[in-house]
Amino acid sequence: MSLTGTPLFATVVALTVIAVVLPLAVWSKVRGPAAARLAVRGTMVLFAQTTAVALVFVAINRDMNFYASWGDLFGTGKYVTAAPDLGADGLGGKKAEEVKAEPKVRQKFEPVEGLGGRVQKTELDGRISGVKGDVMVWLPPQYDEPAYKDKKFPVVELIPGIPGTGKSWFQGLKAHEVLEPLMKQGKVQPFILVSPRAMLLGNADTGCANLPGKVNADSWFSVDVRKMVTDNFRASDEARTWGVAGYSAGAYCAAKLAVLHPDRYSAAVSLSGYNDPGQEPSSLVAKDPELRRTHNLKELLKAQPAPPAVALWMSGAEQDGYLSGMDLKGLAQNPTTVHAEKVTGGHNLESWSKQIPQTFDWLSKTVKAP
């Protein structure tokens, strides 16, 4: 029974109704010694409380899609098939031109239930990263119009927080519903949106890092997913045509990928992000003090051989992304640019969804059309 499916939701609703009705019907009819009556009544109360909590969890998860499966919930999903040391650039000794020249892999896509036909899903077997997982893709309304049949489109890669799935950007933040009318009105570029699986090792946060022997999350996002998009859709692999955006732990990832790979991304949007990976309790990177230090965005920016030609948008409340942005802004040297935006609304999907028009207006001016 699917964790997000209707059968489970209907079952939990039915059990909750029973848990409420049952005590009303039999409470005064319970017989036996006082201890037995207390035990029966206590069990009914516990059952009612448990089903109520389960109903709230299932309902919220269906709406926000924090966990896509039972494997995600219990941390038993298997998405890493290999994790070799791929080197500093995450290409495993290959040159970018060699990766680009590899035979195209045509993926099979299917519509995603509950999100309309324009959101599609595929299962991607990452040849470089050793990660195998689902990727959501949304095509802009112009993609199938005759006037655009020979045109390529810019791309924004969307990374969810932890917990979260590729579906979270569409079902939770409703990014496609917010952006489609803006694209039709010409207020936002017609971006291809692609949102890959981010939970790759149980419920742990990979920090979008390549960790030999554990996971190559960086290469999953910045190499395999990018190549899948250019293999299957009218998109360029030029960095100037790619942006990356994330919220919470995904915000840290977005900024990190842009800083590390200006040859793959030209811009990043960080919504309620942070510089120190230790701010995410489940961070694998933060478990090692030295990795935590070297993967701090401030250290990564300073460690680059030359200031990366990327633009960063970092927004959030003062202690929830804004000051992190100001710290990076203070370190940035041309051609790196950092825009820090203080916002209100809290650390939640509603707040991030409200920022989509403004941030994608910025991306439209920063990421170039092919």
Automatic annotation (TrEMBL):
EC number: 3.2.1.8
Record carries keyword Hydrolase: yes
InterPro entries (UniProt xref): AB_hydrolase_fold (IPR029058), Esterase-like (IPR000801), Mycobacterial_A85_antigen (IPR050583)
A molecular-function term among this protein's GO annotations: acyltransferase activity, transferring groups other than amino-acyl groups
GO BP: xylan catabolic process
UniProtKB keywords: Carbohydrate metabolism, Glycosidase, Hydrolase, Polysaccharide degradation, Xylan degradation
Keyword Hydrolase applies: yes
Enzyme class: hydrolase
Protein name: Endo-1,4-beta-xylanase Z
Top-level taxonomy: Bacteria, Bacillati, Actinomycetota, Actinomycetes, Kitasatosporales
Gene that specifies this protein: xynZ
